[in-house]
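Task 17 of the worksheet. Students: predict the tertiary structure of the chain below and write it out as structure tokens. Keep your answer in the requested format; marks are given for formatting as well as content.
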Amino acid sequence: MAERTVTMAGNPLPVAGPELKPGDKAPDFRLVEKTPDGINEVTLKDFAGQTVILSVVPSIDTPVCEIQTMRFNQEIPDLPPGIRVLTVSMDLPFAQDRFAVENGAGKIRYGSDHRDAGFAKAYGTLIEPLRLEARAIFVVAPDGTLKHVQYVPEVTDQPDYDAALEAARAI
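Model answer:
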């Protein structure tokens, strides 16, 4: 069993990857997103010079993940310029796009880690037995350092939105 675990409805599950901390350099990643031009790659470098909130969810089509995604989508108009939000999950980019359209959640971007779980392995969010992301939030400063990290111990719990938003606004 992995050294770190999360619980899902109280049942422990191993989590693979490092446990990142504020001050660490944010690992680069290669996700895919659906755009009007097709399926494109999205990387941390695409957010160079900006603050990015990485909102990590197990599956976009579950109630808590929907709440998390919608909360950040609703916050976008009130955030200072230069702050972006990227929702990351193992969902296919087509499912992420469908969710955004059906829920009016197009103010944020979506990145799918379904190809190789590279994001999950680099950010320490891979629930290996289920091949899902553990719920987490990372705030990356324009210089590429992590300013806020929250791994949510119980996957069905919501993260601390206010702490993440405060960290992003403080940069």
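Marker's comment: The chain is about 25% helix and 30% strand. The mean pLDDT is 96.
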